[in-house]
Amino acid sequence: MKKFEQKSTALGIELGSTRIKAVLAGPDGSVLASGAHDWENHFEGGYWTYPLSEVWDGIQDAYHNLAEDYQKTCGEPLTTVGALGVSAMMHGYLPFDKEGNQLAAFRTWRNTTTGPAAEALTERFHFNIPQRWSVAHLYQAILNGEDHVKDIDFLTTLAGYVHWQLTGKKVLGIGDAAGMFPIDSATCDYDAAMMASFDELLAEAKLPCHLRDLLPQVLCAGQDAGTLTEAGAKLLDPTGTLQSGAPVCPPEGDAGTGMAATNTVAVRTGNVSAGTSIFAMVVLEKPLQNVYPEIDLVTTPDGAPVAMVHCNNCTSDLNAWVNLFGQVAALCGAKMPASQLFPLLFNASLEGAPDCGDVVPVNYYSGEGVTHFDAGHPLLLRTAGSDFSLANLMRANIYSAMATLKIGLDILQDEKVAVDRLLGHGGLFKTPGVAQRYLAAAAQAPVTVMETAGEGGPYGMALLAGYRLAVLEGCPLNLADYLQQKIFADAPGSTLEPREEDVRGFTAFLERYKAALEAERAAVEHF
User: Family, per the entry (predicted)?
Assistant: First the structure.
């Protein structure tokens, strides 16, 4: 591996749903070192949440593992980086008072508790406000009469919170900000008319504040978002080895880092990120004609409008089945790590029937906005005559992980949204040629997966940090041209065209999946 000066490197840290991961990249985008920490959300007090103490435990562990990897690979301690950035799960609710005290438990994107607020704001703004958006959480807290609301001085996302602690700056990248409140791409700021409209709601609630004063300042990729303070460096690396002073790029959401990681920030490009949740991002060349509750309108990290199909449920049920099969293997004396078990089972799915032999899992661990569920229960349905084989069950579970996404993508197809290329990234695509093949069938479009697909969001965050460093050094390119010319010009990857038998099979499976959602509704109501 080529070795670079440490001050030319870029560090990206992303707090995902089940992993906190750090990636150090060289100026050419090559991965120099990485580290990770596993964590899980908790359901407490009626909300899916993560304690902030676990945020820092996880970040420090991931960074420690990265620093060890760098020392082992490069033969020297990591004392500085050229630039860094933090990304995390988008949306949610993290309110603080004037003294910086947390006022309520972190309410994540996974919560579906803001239905009345989301519906009222969507009608008021004539703009889709999903339940997971920060402004929906805020307005629902107001409607609930929650006592802490009167003390809110700052409301941010998880990435915005971590960035604040590292730099002292209350800012947010425009892509993450677009999951808090609607953005005007022409001004690269919160939509002024909608913000004035929300201020009227604050006045009606007798709250003496303006929304703009509560939200982070919006920044675009490449702009100045502060530097790593001494206290921030100690938060990342309690050993004191990491020096302060590195520039920090605007904090982003996992949607924005997914676009960067897959080189899909240009118009008519799209990507699918698949992990605990799954979402598709398509950069628009013209606005959608209608307002859809199933479609978010957000932005690229440099402010271009994006249609987003976000589904809360993707791999949780699939992971549970793989874990079960791992227990069976261990019982038979064949214990193996997940890194070996997943590829074995994914490749076994290729032997399954294209329509999965009448085996239909519904993978809902939580509510699902696209199909209008406020809660979920994992469910497995099959006919008495189904071909209930391991191959069909695995193929059905992978299909299920992307079935709800397909329902949302069909809306964009009806709107005649054009996509020149679609790229897949995230954990679902780690096994070559399996989920990629099935997504091509679902989307009925060629799907590309690059060799860095498994790195996902933290790699994208490292690239955004690298772009900030390049801008500081005088790079004249916009973000799309920088990624294309400096990072991905010769990036290795593979592209799969949809197979006719897979398209027919997935279409048949999806019809059964939609029918199975009626059983899912009954399960949610009665089980």
Answer: Belongs to the FGGY kinase family.
